[in-house]
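Hi,

I'm pasting everything inline rather than attaching a file, because the server keeps stripping attachments. The sequence lines come first, and each chain or strand is labelled.
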Amino acid sequence: DAKTTQPNSMESNEEEPVHLPCNHSTISGTDYIHWYRQLPSQGPEYVIHGLTSNVNNRMASLAIAEDRKSSTLILHRATLRDAAVYYCILRDAGSGGSNYKLTFGKGTLLTVNP
Amino acid sequence: DGGITQSPKYLFRKEGQNVTLSCEQNLNHDAMYWYRQDPGQGLRLIYYSQIVNDFQKGDIAEGYSVSREKKESFPLTVTSAQKNPTAFYLCASSIPGAVHEQYFGPGTRLTVT
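And the predicted assembly:
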């Protein structure tokens, strides 16, 4: 599985934008970039995913570098409820059973200050 | 409401006992998964099932067993052969496909003493 690198922790202030970086220099052409987040003592929840183009949804935006070797999850206005561990995951969308797997690293712990 | 339920939320067992964790989903998803999470760590895949009556080992299947007799249910048994069973166990489900968003349950925290 292609590997991702994220900072261990980041801090933000409430109502300010947050940019969470992820490096994935060994990404392959069929790898989707997925972001999940996990609130304390809960299961992870899907945030957003993309392949090549930038993506927006109600939760966040995903900015993907032109060479796809890095990406940034953008929370436009952080709230206290956004405090969580954010995971950047590459998922191979090629054929075969292995494309069902999500490999979670340690993620980035986001702290949001009031 | 559609979703994934795991029960119980907290489970305590004595060493040497097998224990079965429940996972039920009413999302009509074909694929289901079991993950384990240790403190400060990411999730590790134990087993996954793409369809009823079929399942595959994940990265850390030793000491665990599963069954998939119904689409809605994917129970995980932690056997006495699992050397470090104390952990947070998470079940997930998804619709196979390119997006493949996984929906997670609330988890079961298992403590074995």
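Strands of chain A lie at 9-13, 18-23, 31-38, 45-50, 55-56, 61-64, 70-75, 84-92, 108-113.

If the labels don't parse on your end, tell me and I'll reformat.
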